[in-house]
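#lab-general

N.A. 3:47 PM
ok so I finally got the sequence cleaned up, no stray characters, all 289 residues accounted for. can someone with queue access submit it? mine expired

B.Y. 3:52 PM
send it over

N.A. 3:53 PM
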Amino acid sequence: MDTGVKHQIISHSFGNEECMMDMGSEKYGCSHYQRRCKIIAPCCNEIFDCRHCHNEAKNSIEIDPINRHDIPRHEIKTVICSLCNTEQDVQQTCINCGICMGKYYCSECKFFDDDVSKNQYHCEKCGICRTGGKDNYFHCDRCECCYSTKLKNSHICIERAMHHNCPICFEYLFDTTRDITVLPCGHTLHLHCVKEMERHYQYSCPVCSKSYCDMTRVWESLDKEVASTPMPQMYQNKMVWILCNDCGETSEVNYHILGHKCLNCKSYNTKQTRGGHTSCSSVLPEMIR
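B.Y. 4:20 PM
back already:
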C-alpha cells in the first residue's frame, strides 16, 4: 500500500545524474550526519545542520530552562542547500543546482544522510528512521520499538521498552543515535552505559536489580568467604528475611555481614526486608575484583 512516504537510497547511475549525486558528498554536514543541506527549525526559525545540533544547542546549560526544547522533526518544512544556499521546501534534490542533498532521504522524518553504509530504513510503526538494515530488525508491537531479529523469540516484552530515558545517562532511548542493548530482564539502556557499569563492577539492572550476567563463580567465591568469616556469638542465631532480586523469592536466613544467600536460586543478589540492621550485597564489588 502506498503511504506517500519517500524513504529511499539513490543508486548510482551514469553521466550528470551520477555527478549530481556525488558532488560535495562527504564534504558537508556535522558530527552527526553527512548531508548537503541545513534545516530551518520550525520551533525557533533558526538554521542548524541537523536536529541533534538544534537539540544540543537549545538544551544546553546556558539556555534558560523555560526556553529549552527539542525540535519537532516531522514538522520541518524548509531546508537550505549547502552548495548554493537556496532555501526551499524539504525534498531530496535541490531545486536550484540539482544536487542530491542526501543519498538516503525520508520525506516523513525530513531526514537526509550521505553515509548509506548505516543501512537506514524507515519503520512505519516506530514512525522514525533507524539504522542496521530492515531485514536485520523487527518491530515488537508490545515493546513498541525495533529489535534485532536475533531477539525475536527470546526477549522479554516490556511495554514501551525504549520510550524512556536511559537509567544511567538519562538520554531518551527511543530515538538515540547510540547503540542500545536489551538486558535479559527486558530493560533497555545504552551499550556504552552497560560497559561503564561493568568498569565499576556493577552487574545488575539499574531498573529492577536483576543480575544480567552469569554470577555463579562470584556466588561460589562468596560462599567461601562467608564460611571462613564466622559471625560473633551474639549474631550466630540471628535470623532475617530477605528478598531475592534475581528470582523474587523470600527466604528466612542466618544473618551475615557479608551477604545473604537466596535459598531458592542460591544468589547473593538479595536485600534484607525484616530483622535487624539492613544488609545488602555491599561486598560484591570487592568479590568480583
